């Protein structure tokens, strides 16, 4: 009873502290999703414009992308980790649609990241103004994705920083294939299966500069991660804080890492194991495209809200699987998930929310509560552009 009373008090205090904008958005969400779908290209254009705004409005004004826009607190500081993998999305969009501004913004992001790289090659965890500044495996891997894209697109200026980050990751891998030496201080201690998404960074570096052992280290980590897979495709140790009920966000990271490992290596076993996890996630998808934001080991819902980032991350991997297997269940699931997330977006209204993607739907869900996160539109753009490519190929 005492615990329940404390929770009620916390809830009351939170409600009292909500801004009018937060209250209005919650009321909007509680009415349910609108029936209308803005469509792929309008939603993608709006999301790109929001990412540009997030770069301009970052509280630290350094060329990085603001971590989030909070309905209660406004724009946050730049976030190195996700700025790293936003870079290839901006380059891809700019090249597709002739948006030179998007490409130049990616270069500004790169220049900022290079300026904050530690001498040994790693990058800090957390927001750029974090008081604890230590190199972190996961964040470095995400930034490596951007550095590899920068080296491939812009040339030698980003090649040395890419190598420094890749060598640091390659050489810090434990003998069994798990990264443990430079864990993030912002998550629960322990092994992290979702660091297959770090391996993706090494695969990208290996594409730019083969023959340096980057891909070999990445495959070693992926094989370790597969030891965490259960018979039903479930992945142990795959969450920031609660491995018993992980976020679809971190499950999406892990699945994408498996997909990228197969894309690089052609390893049939990795693909077969990725399919097991993808099928487990598919079993949790509702007909309307809602995917619970946290899941239990039997793939049932652990919460009643959706983690929108996880939805589109997983949709992207389902689309990759459709391209590989031709099985329409993956295409149809991805279309439903992508459409669900598009319907949560606002393509009119306040500029700070226009084209943004919430952490959770409804907005008071436990992931990115009351926030629009910069990585949510990044993954939305990627998944929707791949869906568009597939539809155009017929």
From TrEMBL:
InterPro entries: 6-hairpin_glycosidase_sf (IPR008928), SQ_cyclase_C (IPR032696). Gene3D superfamilies: 1.50.10.20. Residues 90-254 form the Squalene cyclase C-terminal domain. Transmembrane segments: none annotated. Pfam families: SQHop_cyclase_C (PF13243). This is Squalene cyclase C-terminal domain-containing protein. It comes from Roseateles aquae. The lineage of its organism: Bacteria, Pseudomonadati, Pseudomonadota, Betaproteobacteria, Burkholderiales.
